[in-house]
Write a structure and sequence with these properties.
The chain contains two helices and no strands. The protein has one domain. The protein is mainly alpha-helical and about 120 residues long. It is about 85% helix and about 0% strand.
């Protein structure tokens, strides 16, 4: 459900949608070709076979490209996440050192206050 001030979410690179579209389009084209073909059944079957092979090859190529993109994106996300984790670790360590210095200073001030009283 989409609320008034929100845009609907669209999922790009949906491989299943692409494959389903290719399959449905291929089937629709095959049915149309059978119904409107002015050639013999043998020629039509040969043409269907050739087009099926072509469609399979294109689909395989698109799937390989999509998988390569997913792998590349996964590696980039992992690399960026690791870098960010290291940055956060160093920042956290610096904050701990800073807070320990404040605690030490406060302890020293308290010790002086006790000794002077």
């Amino acid at each position: 459900m989409v609320k008034e001030n929100q845009e609907p979410e669209y999922h790009n690179n949906n491989i299943l949608s692409v494959l389903a579209g290719l399959l449905i389009g291929g089937l629709a084209g095959a049915v149309t070709m059978l119904l409107l073909a002015p050639q013999s059944g043998k020629d039509t079957r040969m043409q269907i076979q050739e087009k099926g092979i072509e469609l399979r090859d294109r689909t395989t190529g698109m799937l390989e490209d999509a998988m390569a993109q997913v792998r590349s994106d996964g590696k980039k996300i992992t690399r960026d996440g690791s870098r960010k984790a290291k940055e956060l670790l160093h920042h956290g360590q610096a904050l701990v050192v800073e807070q320990l210095e404040h605690v030490s200073e406060a302890a020293q001030a308290g010790k002086k206050a006790i000794q002077s009283s």
